[in-house]
Design brief:
The protein is an all-alpha fold. It contains two helices and no strands. About 75% of the residues lie in helices and about 0% in strands. It starts with a helix and ends with a helix.
């Protein structure tokens, strides 16, 4: 395997671990002092995390599939 393929697998693995972490630990999305504003903060941070994971996953796929 080439270095870019290994980096791609590492990025995909990191995306999987991050998504699993936030799936089971939703309290990490709520900052201290904002318990009453729960819905907007959690939804916006969850969308931001989801988009970041998607883009990182796509970069990982691009590095794996890229042929020189």
């Amino acid at each position: 395997m080439k270095n870019k393929e290994i980096l791609g697998f590492i990025l995909i693995g990191a995306c999987l671990l991050i998504s699993l972490f936030f799936s089971f630990n939703t309290d990490a999305l709520i900052p201290n002092g904002y318990e009453l504003a729960l819905n907007g903060i959690v939804i916006s941070k969850a969308i931001m995390v989801g988009i970041s994971i998607y883009l990182t996953f796509k970069i990982g796929q691009l590095l794996i599939k890229k042929k020189e």
